[in-house]
Each structure stands twice: as C-alpha cells, then as structure tokens.
Amino acid sequence: MIKKIMEKIPSKNVGYMIICGGIILLIILLGILPLHRYNVKRSEAVAGIQAQIDEQKELRQIYQLISQASLKKDDRILPNPMKTKLSRQNMDEFQDSFRAEAAKAGINILSLIPDVKTMAGGSQNLLYTAMLKGEFADFRKLMIGLGSLPYIDRIEGINMEQNSDSMDFELKIWVALAG
Asked: Is 122 helix (H, G, I), strand (E, B) or coil?
C-alpha cells in the first residue's frame, strides 16, 4: 500500500511536503508558542493588577471610616480654657453650669452648697461643697466637663466612698470671683 502511494506521489513532492511541514512546525515552535507564553504571562499580570485594584477599592472604604473617625473630637482630650473670673452678680451661673455638667455626665447631685465664710467680704474665691452620687466613669466625665468651665480656680479635695450600688463623691470647688 505504501508502494502504491509512493508511486502516485513523486519523490520530489514528498521532499517538498517534508520541507513545508518542517517550516510550518518551525513557525509554530518559534513564533506561536512564545507568543502564547507571552500572552499567558500578560494575562496573569493583568489579573494581579486587577486584584490590587479591587483590594484598593475595599481599603478605600476603611480609609474613609478611619479619616472620619480621626476628625471627631475625642473625649479624652482635656479642655483647657482661658481662665476668667465670675462676677459676684452672676454667682448662680456656676450652679447652673455645674448642674448641666452633672446631668450630661449622668451624676446625681445630692447637694451643692456655697461656703458662707467665703461669700462675705472681699474674697477673690468662693468655695462650693458638692455631694454627688454615681459611677466612677461618669464622675470622670464630670471632672472633664468641669475642666471646661473657665472660672473654676481649683478643686481642692475629692472624697470617694464605695456603696453597694454606686459611689458617693464629695468635692470642694473654688470659683474665681471678680473683685
């Protein structure tokens, strides 16, 4: 059978077919396969870059949340207002401010009493004794709030007593008065 095929196809044509097949094989091996490998590497690189883009999109949302959180005022920053003095006509303003800060902090005021001895005469300061009831964390918030009142000269004494359900606090607060 091979002889019949060989008789029908001249030997020169078989040689040409082998040469042409070799050239086609060479084109495939030297041209198409490297191009295919190049395209596969490029596709992998594109997929990697796309994964990085997707990751950046996800991280952008987290970055925005962190940025917004950093712009909010933190309660841990202590106020430090310019110190002023309270006029004798406006002495009740301290009691109103103290009650507002205590309500904001969640502390109950049992009493807020001015010292009569410091009210008389030309004293530059007025002493208040405050009895409070609440939790320690709320007391901390109250102290930070009192720090924002510009006419408080100093807090002289703090007494704390633990009860079964809450804590009792006693404060001695000096308020600066204008002469």
From this structure: coil
Contact 151, 90 (CB under 8 A): no
pTM of the prediction?
0.56
Q: How far apart are CA 82 and CA 152, in angstroms?
A: 11
pLDDT of residue 104: 92
| Residue environment code for 110-125, b if the CB has 16+ CB neighbours within 10 A, otherwise e | eebebeeebeeeeeee
Residue 168 pairs in a beta bridge with 133, 161
**Distance from C-alpha of 136 to C-alpha of 168, rounded to nearest angstrom:** 9
Residues 68-117 have pLDDT tens digits of 887 776 556 666 778 888 777 887 888 889 999 999 999 999 999 888 88
DSSP assignment string, 74-86: PTTSPP-PPP--B
Query: Do residues 142 and 132 touch, judged by C-beta distance below 8 A?
Result: yes
